[in-house]
């Protein structure tokens, strides 16, 4: 049972703190990133004894995960077909060009609210995370090796074990908050960092609708790190630095009154992406010719050096 699993993890975490005087993930964050406010999407899923779950699910899934890896492989007909199905026959593009980020622009887009409630594990967890340990992992979570959940576990681990793209991408799948913080510091080279997420207010149905851009604000220009929450039995984030980027905050409103402050990442260097990847198929452009942008759902986090750090 998932509730029993979470209880065991909570007990393990508390026992470690008491017996080894380890600092909590919250304190680790404050110690390493003293000027960075912890996003709510992280704070909500730190493992505590009061973590509320009535679910027996063994694998947590996000509503959608575009923006993570479609440039790593050739687009398939099924991917394009699924976009049309998800949009109720009104085609939308999860990727767009930087020139489209302007006040007054209107786009068709589905909900950016994700519902992946996977909790963080303690850093000291001994649960393996390796394709060589699949049987042990499935057994630990009591997952049938022929089930959809088993395939999801395998797919996520496979993604995490893929090599970096032509040495222009630095990536790591982190299985704890502490390892996420360590990777941020190692790649961005400063502890003066902004951590931002997309925010959605007033959403009632989550279907595809038209959104109008009310304000577009550039937040950063240069390297950033994005941590995407993957589909897994606990919180695993695919964190990567993918070359020079621009980061924007886009305030927009849907026809039903939904208000969104959406984080948009525009990749300035796409020369090392797969030429037949989904972004190029949808936008009909070639790698390295123009910046390609995408929004981040609410469970994905972007980290950028603050202006003070840049100066």
UniProtKB/TrEMBL annotation:
PANTHER family per record: BURP DOMAIN PROTEIN RD22-LIKE (PTHR31236:SF26), BURP DOMAIN PROTEIN USPL1-LIKE (PTHR31236)
Protein's recorded name: BURP domain-containing protein
Domain BURP span(s) in chain numbering: 95-306
Transmembrane segments: none
Keyword annotations of the record: Signal
Signal peptide (residue range): 1-21
Domain of life: Eukaryota
